[in-house]
Amino acid sequence: MSLTNRETWTLVHGLIIGTLFLLAFAGGLAGLWSLQRGLVTTVGIRERMARLKIGTTVMALMAWATVLTGTWVVYPWYREGLAGDELAGCAGLQAPTDACSPRDFLLSNVSGSTEDWHKFGMEWKEHIAWISPMLATVAMFLVLYYRGGLSRNRTVRLITIGFFVAAFAVAGIAGLFGALITKAAPVH
């Protein structure tokens, strides 16, 4: 099995960076949730804070890496206008080719009703997905700023969890759309 350059970048963007994002989220959420004053000692808070700082920082960095590679590496290949204004280059095709980009393929509806996959799914990924790294960065900043104070200030801890979970939710929806769009119209 061999992968093209485009397939490799798609794999790095979605699977590798996405997996690191998920792992950092799981560890960060568990760390934030368990950082309750009644559950940990002063020594325990210090020990957890080291992992929490790393987890939230890694999550924010992976969120940025995902949107940056998606926007400036993978997305231009998806969006190439190859099939012409009337999308005639896609007629009769079962999948995108060198004459029909994934975007052209979805908009042409040659394999069924696929136009909405681009109009809603890809637009979500193109615009809304940028909110995820912003939210993850806010959560990271709150962890780095408040440190051990998160265990004493329940409100700030819950706000941090809220930003953290919102970043994950936005990224999760974008990832789901990405997987489904790639299945319908893979970057070749």
Question: Whole-number average pLDDT?
Answer: 92
By secondary-structure content and strand pairing, the structural class works out as mainly alpha
Query: How far do the termini sit from each other?
Result: 15 Å
Given as residue ranges, the uncertain stretches (5+ residues, pLDDT < 50) are: none
Total number of domains: 1
Helix content: over 70%
Shape: elongated
Please indicate the percent range of residues in DSSP E strands (runs of 2 or more): under 5%
* Radius of gyration (Å): 20 Å
Strand count, sense and barrel status of the largest sheet are: none
| DSSP helical segment count | 7
Report on the architecture of this protein:
By secondary structure, the protein is mainly alpha-helical. The chain has one domain. It is built from 7 helices and no strands.
Descriptive key words:
single chain; 188 residues; mainly alpha; 7 helices; 73% helix; elongated
How is the topology of this model organized?
Blueprint: H1 5-33, H2 42-79, H3 102-108, H4 115-127, H5 131-146, H6 149-152, H7 154-184
Helix pairs in contact: 1-2, 1-7, 2-5, 3-4, 4-7, 5-7
Outline:
With 188 residues, the protein is mainly α. It has one domain (5-184). Helices cover 73% and strands 0% of the residues.
